[in-house]
Structures are given as structure tokens and as C-alpha cells.
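Explain this fold:

***
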Amino acid sequence: MTHELTIAGPTLEEVERARTTLTGVVDVTPMESSHYLSRVLGQPVFMKCENLQRTGSYKIRGAYNRISSLSDDEKARGVVAASAGNHAQGVAFAARELGIPATIFMPIGVALPKLAATRDYGADVVLRGHTVAEPLKAAAEHAERTGAVYIPPFDHPDVVAGQGTLGLEVLDQVPDLATVVVPIGGGGLISGMASVLKQRAAALGREIRVIGVQAVNAAAYPVSLAAGAPTEITISPTIADGIAVSKPGKLNFAIIKDTVDDVVTVDDDDIARAMLVLLERAKLVVEPAGAVGVAAILTGKVRATGPTVVMLSGGNIDPLIMERVISHGLAASERYLKLRIPLPDRPGQLARTSEIVAAQNANVVEVLHTRHGTGLAISQVELELHIETRGPEHAEQVLGALRAEGYEPRVDF
């Protein structure tokens, strides 16, 4: 039995118009199957690779759709936005394609690749403050002073409709879709996709589940949904800076409370492990915010029946941050151990511990030998070993071998 669904979000006709607007501007990104994630979930899993989109994320969809809808007078006044990354690049690219001047306010500490890319797309970039709040304030003041049109990152019907085009693409590529797993920051992406998927499912007389994922240190939606209204939270540091939004958008919240089936959270260790899995198993570079859906699958937070699509929403990551995340992911997977071992201060102890580790087929990559460790007796030294292992079981095997020989290793990470 089919029926129509009335929600706060864009209609299917509005999203179809947005898709027409975006034709030739955005890429129809690949949908890749994942045998590894399918085994983990116990259902067929597909990855929607918006990390391979122009500008490196889905944000170009909403930005272009919003800017293209401006009047001639508004276009002449130019546009302004505030962002630390993906939204900045989406707005800058869209403005360039439409021949409109753009000013982007970014925090002083923005990653250099994101800063360079935004400038390369032709935007006038102004660095202001050290958090996103300060560029947001500066962008609002610029709009008031100059008449430039402010382009919001998520809380606008045109932006939501633009992001909703991904829902149409996903259904084209996986027609029997049963579950979709989507990162959430302010809520632009998931509100657009959920609008489309729930309306299409109702028309077809079937169910499609929509699951949102937030970083635990920036999880405004569970709090807001419990309160029944958009609620501001205090954000703690997280590697998923692309979805670190302290308060849901009003329009986005209204859509999400009616259309999203569940919102789960993952921590930074989970995200780092997911990025490592995507690199090793899928050969895909995905930024932390874009990998939270995979993290939710790996940690068992997602329950699904039938074909499941996980959104890889972006791939813009500073190589220096990538290096740190890979190291963190290896440590979180217990494939890289940092051990501190108190030793008697006599010859041969370093060689003996190295022999034990080597006998377990683990690789020592760094060694520090010191007499100044905290809590050491006068007759003791401390050995710090950085060791590569094959995973948790192998790591425990190495630790067990050291303990069997009377040593007391302490794992730092």
C-alpha cells in the first residue's frame, strides 16, 4: 500500500529540481561494495563515496543550489560564508562557477590545504579568530555592512534540497536500499537525504531506515532530541572537526525528529580505526567526519537488515593530521604499542627484552633507555619500547612473554 508523507523538509519535486540545477556541476560519485563491512554487519554494505566529489565533499551540492537560486540583484552583491573547511570550498567553487564574488571567513588555524583550496577557487579569504564562532560573527557583520548574501552551511531549504540529491543518487545506485548510515553535524546532509528517502519509501509502500552518527564529543542531536528542541552543547575536542557543531539547525532538527530512526555516537578511537580500515581495505582517503558511519558499523552501533549504504561524506584532510590519525588508529587497534618496562640497572637487560620481543615476531621501531623515569628506584632504569604488532591477540602474546620472564610492562598506548 502506498501513501504520501508530509514532512518539514523539501518535497521530492524540489529535490528533483535541485538535481537538474546540479547536473554537470557535481559528479555522480561511485557506490562501492565492501566485503569487509558486509561481514562485520552481516548484511550487504555499500559505501557512497562523496569523498571523491568535486571540492572533496558533498557540501558543493547545497552551496551551489542555494547560490544559483539568488536573484540578479543578490548575485551582484556577492556571497559570504564562514567555515573551517568543506563548506568554504563548496561556496567558493559554486560562486566561481556562477561568476559571483565570494568572501569566506576562516579561523586563523585552518589547515593549510583547505585554506589553499578555498583561495584557488577564487574566494577572498579572511582569517579571523581561533574558533569557528569568530568567523561566523565576522561573516554576519560583513553581510550587514556590505549587503552580501550569507550562505549558511545547513539551515536553509535550498541547502537541504541540494544535499537531498544524494538521496536520489543512492536510490538510483542501490534500489533495494534498506538502511542508510549518515554523519551528522548541523544536520544538512541527513535532513536532505531523510526527506527524500522517507518520501520515496512511503510512495513505494516500504521502509527505509535512516541512522545518524555523531562524534561523542560533539553530539548535540541526542541531547536536542531528548529535549524536544535544538539545544546548544559544549563541544569537547574531537578529530571529527567537520561535524563539530554545537547546536542543530532549526529546519534540520524539525526534519530529523520526524524522519531519522536513530542517532548513535562514536569516539575518536572508533573514528581513527574506521579511517584505517578505509585506507587498508577500501584504499579510500576519508576525513574523520566522513568516517563516523563506518565507525558505527565497526563498533556494532548499527543494526540493519537488508542492503545498507554508509555515507563517506568527505575526504579533505591535512596530510599531517592524517599521519597522526593513522598512528592513533594503529594504537587503538593494538597494532602499535608503547611499553614502559622497569629494569634492573645492570648489563644485558636491554638485549634480553629485545630477544623476548623478537621471539614473538614483533618489531621494535623505537627504543628509549633512561634512569629518570617517575617512580624508579635508584637501582632501576626504565626502558621505553615502541612495538609494531599484528593486532590485539599478538599484542597480548608479546606482553605475556615479557611477564613470563619476570618483567612488568606498562602499556601507554
In short: The chain has a mean pLDDT of 91. Residues 157-173 form the longest helix (17 residues). The radius of gyration is 24 Å.
